[in-house]
């Protein structure tokens, strides 16, 4: 390091020491106020009081939103494994009429296949064995596999023209969650925590719930890095809530530790960490202090929000019988509503089991039953509580499935391989137009013919609804300014209210 650089760093640390020394009394007063639940004023650029907020909540890096927001929070119902759009949303009579015929080369056009089907001698077209009907004011086609979703189709914006470059699970899921097929980038929830912070001082801004589906119970695994903070401070990583006696690992104190002694330990630990920060200036030390304080607060807040014992019977009936079974998708949807009520910023649900390369008819019927009623109930429940208008709900997987059969095609059985060229997702609430079907695929369900939507377009639109310009929420790392949408992405204004 050059002498000039050393002097600059030392000057910065000296200035920091001076500031911390003079501000100690004020900071102590603010901390005391936070513990006592006091509120503090925030002002606009003209010095006018605009609102009050708790000092204890975690503020994001953005001083203000880039534009007016429609959504305050996101519930992302991620369907891991790649749901087949052809069995659920994208009705294709041509595939039924031409069942068993070869996929025309003019349609495939030499496009990439996975290693699981590239060696097949035949690519027989396979129409869905499940019926479709039209629902809602626009006559939207929905599969018989999704009767509850069909009833609330006028609340949904169904996008049939999603596409991605990733053709295998791990890079495809990573791409959706982080904006890159390579691991190591911050996840969506981490970007929002970094940019907007938390509105609840007792719960993390980014929470994660996992469930395993009945379609393929031992299917593709998920990795904790999918909700990791990447190169952002560790304060912004997702916190996984488990269906267990201890919802968050290592949160509870050992026997013999009282609330008062724990408070004293944390106070002394904070003093030591402050001394380290004063010496080294590493911002990760501040993140560590914040994490200790959040864990302390979560000891009370997490058991309260995770317990659904006080929910009325009609709510359990709305979400389905599985809502009383911890760890199921239905139970997690109910918890998502409770977390939304507590103003958690980003609530991520992962539901595994959609990777159906064989025995698709039997597997997808079970898998759809796992999610159909609870997904629809979540939309309805938020709406009846006045929360849907500022909560963005997202439902979808990492890619779609092929229109031809993987393996042998019979009258009652077939499988489908991965298909990144076109697939379906839906969104609801949070400034999204309801009752809309956006995008169109060809009669074979293989290529997009109208209004393609890339993964980065979807991410840019989500950030826009939250009041963020996706090109301006950046983090400088290793000499480059990174963002969720990398160097791409366009806001889909046609989908916005």
Automatic annotation (TrEMBL):
Coiled-coil intervals: none
Signal peptide residues on this chain, from the entry's feature table: none
SUPFAM superfamilies with a match to the protein in the record: Alkaline phosphatase-like
InterPro entries: Alkaline_phosphatase_core_sf (IPR017850), DUF1501 (IPR010869), TAT_signal_bac_arc (IPR019546)
Gene3D superfamilies on file: Alkaline Phosphatase, subunit A
Domain of life of the source: Bacteria
The protein, known as: DUF1501 domain-containing protein
Lineage, highest ranks first: Bacteria, Pseudomonadati, Bacteroidota, Flavobacteriia, Flavobacteriales
